[in-house]
Automatic annotation (TrEMBL):
Record keyword Hydrolase present: yes
Top-level division of the source organism's lineage: Bacteria
Phylogenetic placement of the source organism: Bacteria, Bacillati, Mycoplasmatota, Mollicutes, Entomoplasmatales
Protein name per UniProt: Aryl-phospho-beta-d-glucosidase
SUPFAM superfamilies (alphabetical): (Trans)glycosidases (SSF51445)
Family: Belongs to the glycosyl hydrolase 1 family.
Record GO cellular component, one term: cytosol
Residue ranges of coiled coil: none
Swiss-Prot/TrEMBL keywords: Glycosidase, Hydrolase
Keyword DNA damage in record: no
Pfam families referenced in this protein's UniProt entry, alphabetically: Glyco_hydro_1
């Protein structure tokens, strides 16, 4: 099945992971600058342990975006999902625009557009400005005013470049690991902080929708443009027959709780019950639910990496039964388990299983009736970069078996408008630093110019795009020939 010509083949990336130039162009610190400086940690080489490294330079997209866009054009992309940096645009407070930041993104988006690559901006991805965090960040209701000022400015000056936008990326990971835990900044370990942050994030999306519609009326955004929310739901699989109810409860929290507020304007009843149990009934204030209900978003972005095996939280694992320790949550009734037998894992202990992408897409489409886009799908690995050829067959296979499920979903009536893999080039990973490779293009982080080199998976995606989504082959001789003769033989200074 050949896909429609307007299907979006994209790659996704994120400012604090790729951009660098953290103190250039009038920019100040975000919570990620503070976190990586305070928690800097380099584990032993080759260990799949978390590296927290400097993001001061990263892949230096700030200075190399023209080179990168040449590579993207050569790859054949017709879209780039880019999580832009709030702090680069409002570096001091919510009122003073940093015009150097606006100019940077204007230059990037204009260059993408000139090369027939649609910019697909995401407005917020975990990187609250420090000036806002010092005042309480997303726990402070004033964040609604600050965010309104930010999005209105972005839509006014950059809205002309795209008809597809997203408000947030992975609210679940940000709030669960940053407010209920300390794995991510702002590392609050607070149930109250979590409740206020997730509710304010949802209200910010509704406010963004109001400003989006205003920008359409002002002529700054295409009247047909869509504004969506991007979520990282891992569809649940009951570990045993008797875990079916626990799995339903998991999906209620991890699908509906994070999507319903911005797609239906409601919360599942379990959240109201939890707020009451925790004595947090003042989190949702009069008028909040009407604001959500009247300003639902238009589009679902979905980050699919793997499914989640779910068991009742009182299940006792047998010795040697699990690959890694189970994960419990802030609510009772279920836990996530990681079976060792008959389950594939990456070198970073992430499950490899595309089979829940199709039923998950059918659930999302059937329940919300909103267009879908895969915004993130990719393989984090230790790539062998010792030679001239980076033969990441494992990544090409991973992407191929997952894209095949996207095609099945389209054939069965799911309105997928695009697929964007994670990620274009190697970048800083919050879970693995610079040792966890995700890119189609390698970055030499030890090089003063951060040299770019295509991997085998780059050729795989190039062929997939040029075939209109038909060529899913990932292990043939022609792919290697394409890397040797088609790419590396002409990969000169302009692409490095």
């Amino acid at each position: 099945m050949k896909l429609e010509k307007d299907f979006i083949f994209a790659a996704s990336t994120n400012a604090f992971q790729i951009e660098g130039a953290r103190n250039l162009g009038g920019r100040t610190d975000s919570i990620w600058d503070e976190f990586t400086k305070r928690c800097f940690h380099i584990p032993p080489i080759g260990k799949n342990e978390r590296e927290i490294n400097s993001i001061a330079v990263s892949a230096d997209f700030y200075h190399k975006y023209q080179t990168d866009i040449r590579i993207m054009k050569r790859l054949g992309l017709n879209g780039l999902v880019y999580n832009i940096d709030w702090t680069r645009i409002f570096s001091k407070n919510s009122q003073e625009i940093n015009w150097e930041g606006i100019k940077f993104y204007d230059d990037v988006f204009a260059t993408l557009q000139a090369n027939n690559i649609k910019p697909i901006p995401i407005l917020f991805h975990w990187d609250t400005p420090m000036w806002a965090e010092i005042q309480g960040g997303f726990e402070n209701r004033k964040i609604l005013e600050w965010f309104q000022s930010y999005v209105a400015t972005v839509f006014k000056y950059l809205g002309k470049y795209s008809d597809i936008w997203f408000v947030n990326d992975e609210n679940s990971t940000f709030t669960l690991d940053g407010y209920l835990g300390d794995y991510l900044p702002p590392a609050k370990n607070s149930k109250e902080g979590f409740a206020r942050a997730i509710h304010h994030l949802n209200l910010c999306a509704a406010i963004a929708k109001i400003e989006f519609e205003k920008a359409k009326l002002a002529g700054d955004i295409n009247p047909a443009a869509l504004l969506g929310i991007d979520h990282d739901w891992s569809p649940g699989i009951p570990y045993r027959i008797e875990d079916a109810k626990a799995c339903q409860e998991y999906n209620l929290w991890f699908k509906n709780f994070f999507l319903d507020p911005n797609l239906k304007g409601t919360y599942p009843a379990v959240f109201d019950d939890w707020l009451e149990t925790e004595g947090l009934t003042d989190v949702i204030q009069p008028g909040d639910m009407a604001l959500l209900k009247n300003n639902c978003l238009d589009l679902i972005g979905w980050n699919y990496y793997r499914p989640a095996y779910i068991a009742c939280d009182d299940y006792q694992e047998k010795p040697g039964e699990m690959q890694i320790a189970s994960r419990t949550f802030f609510v009772k009734g279920f836990k996530q388990v990681f079976p060792k037998n008959n389950v594939r894992y990456t070198s970073w202990n992430w499950i490899i299983d595309p089979t829940m992408l199709l039923p998950g897409a059918q659930q999302l489409w059937g329940e919300y009736q909103k267009p879908l886009m895969i915004v993130e799908n990719g393989l984090g690995a230790f790539d062998d970069k010792r030679g001239d050829l980076i033969l990441d067959y494992n990544r090409a296979e991973y992407l191929s078996i997952h894209f095949a499920e996207v095609k099945k979903a389209i054939a069965q009536g799911v309105n997928f408008i695009g697929y964007s893999l994670w990620t274009y080039c190697d970048i800083f990973s919050p879970s693995g630093g610079y040792r966890k490779d995700y890119g189609l293009v390698a970055v030499d982080f030890n090089s003063p110019i951060k040299t770019r080199t295509p991997k085998l998976s780059y050729v795989w995606y190039q062929r997939l795009i040029s075939s209109g989504g038909e060529n899913l082959t990932h292990d043939d001789h022609d792919m290697l020939e394409g890397l040797l003769k088609g790419e590396l033989s002409t990969w000169d200074f302009w692409y490095q």
